[in-house]
């Protein structure tokens, strides 16, 4: 499977450092494979400490002038980047589908979602206002300024290769920071294409630097040790996030960590079941279940349990699994064989503990490759609370469902997790809405809604799901610090 790009130059395959496209000095490369076929899409640099250090040097030099660039001018450049992203949405979507596997329509949708953050922060760049503070004595003026934190190191995941880049880089540039970025080894091509468009939009040399490597640790260690890097923004696993937090303490960097999730999805017996099924379909099966906010633990009140299972199973069984190039596909391949193995392990474990497979439950084999990365969308009923899939992110199209009796019981079940990113619940009792919202331990709550993310809303979690927020006015503040100024002798 291959996609023909209208602008072939968007398929960039080199690092971008100090305004120049370049290979790794060592000459080392590694392949980016199509997850559906296992066939390489491109060869990219396998960079090391040399490129990581060069990126910081470039960002440090560029920061002097970029932070002094008027906010309106920065906003104009970022807005131009947004316009170019939207103008090339189809090509960018094809690149995502080629390296990540999601269906093309969904990939193009991700581009629009990514661009919404670029546009939002272009506008927010001119609104980073400080404060005038009433002085306690005569002859004194007191104020608080917002300033860019400095060089930002962004480390992004493979599941949303455009959206995660946009959510981190756009606010950094808007705040006046410069960026060194390492996209996921599985999906670097989307990041490089976006940088190509940023260069075209007029982002100055050294302001945005991308380093591609198969070894995140090699690059991250350089950035952790360099005191000039003042912020780390990371989306990925909780163990890696904790490592970054620990190591960054030596230089006291600012951190924004969007880590693991294990979202509960609660259906109360007074809910609109059709709406709840639709909300679960949107939340659970987007990107084949490979999202940090997708429901991993589905709790349905006993009175409506059987009816809900019947309605959901019919919808899930009708999902079309196939390659990104097929317009009918709704679920693409999983990212790699390791992901499939984890899904199979979770389903097997749940069944051993008494779960029933209502639909799916197996790998789907095609003639594209011997070791298929397609997995059938699956509904598991009567899932025991001890099952692995209720305690670990499955990152796949698996809907494990457990019955509950009372509101108090399900709140305890929902909060029985070290994670606290997203939660969902469906009810038509407005008094219950406020009780449950207050009781859930998480950073994001969907009430009668399965699609949560928006550029104007703060995105992030609590507990082992990390800290810091992306999107919204709070997302811009993550890239700034406050400078208090007290001027005396004015009377």
From TrEMBL:
A Pfam family matched in the record: Aldedh
Active site: 258
An example Gene Ontology biological process: gamma-aminobutyric acid catabolic process
Domain Aldehyde dehydrogenase: 21-485
Family stated for the protein in its record: Belongs to the aldehyde dehydrogenase family.
EC number(s) from the headed UniProt entry: 1.2.1.16
Entry's Gene Ontology molecular function annotations: succinate-semialdehyde dehydrogenase (NAD+) activity
Protein name in UniProt: Succinate-semialdehyde dehydrogenase
Keyword annotations: NADP, Oxidoreductase
InterPro entries for the chain: Ald_DH/histidinol_DH (IPR016161), Ald_DH_C (IPR016163), Ald_DH_CS_CYS (IPR016160), Ald_DH_CS_GLU (IPR029510), Ald_DH_N (IPR016162), Aldehyde_DH_dom (IPR015590), Aldehyde_DH_Superfamily (IPR050740)
Signal sequence region: none
Root EC class: oxidoreductase
